[in-house]
Amino acid sequence: MIMPPRIKARGGKVRSKINRAPSPVLAVGLPWLSIMIGSVLTTVLVIASAPIMPPLGFLMYLAWRQLRPGLLPVWAGLPLGMIDDLYSGQPFGSAVLLWSIATIVLDVFEVRVPWRQFITDWLVAAAITATYAIASLTLANLASGSTPVLTIVPQIIASILIYPLVCRLVAKIDQVRLIPIVEVD
Amino acid sequence: MAPPANRRPGHSRRAQYSSFFGYLAGVLGALIGAVLLILSIRNPGLFSGAQSAATEAAEPAGSASAVTRRAGRDIFSVLEGYVLAGSRYDKLNRELKQARSELAESKAIKAENRRLKKLLTIVEDDPEPVAVSRLTGSSAASSRRYATIGVGFRHGVRDGMPVRSILGIVGRVLQTGPGSARVLLVTDTQSLVPVRRAQDDVAAFAQGRGDGTLQVRLIDLGVNPLKKGDILVTSGAGGLYRTGIPVAVVTELTPDGAQARVLSDPAATDYAIVEPISIGPETEPASANEQQASGGATDSER
Predict the structure, then answer these.
(1) How close, in Å, is residue B262 to chain A by CA atoms?
(2) Residue of B nearest to A117 (CA)
(3) Cβ–Cβ of B29/A96 closer than 8 Å?
(4) Pick from B39, B189, B267: CB nearest A146
(5) How far is it, in rounded angstroms, from Cα B266 to Cα B170?
(6) Contact A100 B61 (CB under 8 A)
(7) CA nearest neighbour of B221 among B196, B259, B261, B255
(8) Cβ contacts of A160 on chain B, cutoff 8 Å
(9) Is residue A160 included in any domain, yes or no?
């Protein structure tokens, strides 16, 4: 700090950019938080008399895993799925099971196909989402219910179509996540 | 989009172990999920405490969303109104004239009913609502049909209480937390409502189909007396719901009954009214058909 007056004169803009690092709380916590918000948002946005809402929590989870592989640990499906189960109305444990399986499937795919485009990612996410929706239905029916498969077809289509948007959102959150705001000593 | 170069952690034993244990934890997560699932299927009430606590925590978001939802719907109806104003005004005017005369008629019938009931010394208790609330959330992504309401046992809500809106039956309280409750909607495949046709005594069960419609199964098989446009009301059999709450309108006939659309669409429901549990059918369905029919008529006019 030899010339403090000059730096001050240039205004806060320079000051606020140099010598800063991303906040570790945001960098680590934001993905988790955004997925949990997705899970809750699915239930409060509309009051639906049919399953029409895409499972936003799960889509967020997939998007984070595909855009930032390795950021969420492999076991992240356990706590996040548990939160989703509390709100989704599914029998408790169904999201824990399915999210964990989806994680492993995604990781295997990533090892096999290291070079890919967004279209590939989208196709994989579409396949996983459709399987997830049908498996959720099967588990709910297993517990106590008898909903026909045709009921969830609109939901599957909506989920696939909204996925690029969710990826965009996750990319934006990822930028926010890494904004350098904490002063480095 | 390139993935991070090489995800194999290299020669470091420690890094290899941590990657391995990561996968182990992933598989373990799936196993724990399976165990939880089996537990919750065996004993559905096991996690209800955690679920109602979670619902409670999300309650402010639900309430806020309920308000904006309402505003959003209003915007659409305003836009629609501009387009359809003229023809709708005409139609409403015609219907109003018709309704006025019918209203006068029904007032007379109501008065007569009251007099006749007094003669028969039947005590008609009009249940005071336990609580009134907005619907704050629903299982919109799951194939099970639940909704949450913003009142709980602090407000006197108990498990099993019927929930209705002004338009008709919505569902039944399944789990109560202190300030919120989970409602099993009538469109859920597990919900079974005993119904009858509003104008006579064709008895049936209305089971949810999970997609916003109901499957109506007649109790008396044989010639299907239902017609498109028939209104179904609760019959009160079994004692879960009191008699005469509107349930659904028949949209399509099937060999053993009909498909019906729920009258009180949860998406269009502003306020949900929680009613006390009806103790039992007010009248024996077999012995006093006429009484039930007249009781039902007054209820649906209310």
Answers:
(1) 9
(2) B1
(3) yes
(4) B189
(5) 7
(6) no
(7) B255
(8) none
(9) yes
Where in the sequence is the domain holding A55, given as residue range(s)? 22-179
**pLDDT band at A136; cut points 50, 70, 90:** very high
Pick from B33, B44, B267: which is nearest to A81 by CB? B33
Q: Is residue A26 part of a domain?
A: yes
Cα dihedral sign, A34-A37-A41-A43: positive
Q: ipTM of the predicted structure?
A: 0.78
Number of domain units in chain A: 1
Q: Give the pLDDT band of residue A52 (cuts 50, 70, 90).
A: confident
Q: Tokens for A133, please give them.
A: 């929706």
From the list A87, A104, A145, the residue facing B143 with the nearest CB is A145
Q: Is B166 on the interface with A (CB under 8 A)?
A: no
Contact B266 A47 (CB under 8 A): yes
Q: What is the pLDDT of residues B167-225, one digit of tens each?
A: 888 899 988 888 888 899 888 888 888 988 887 878 888 998 888 889 998 887 777 88
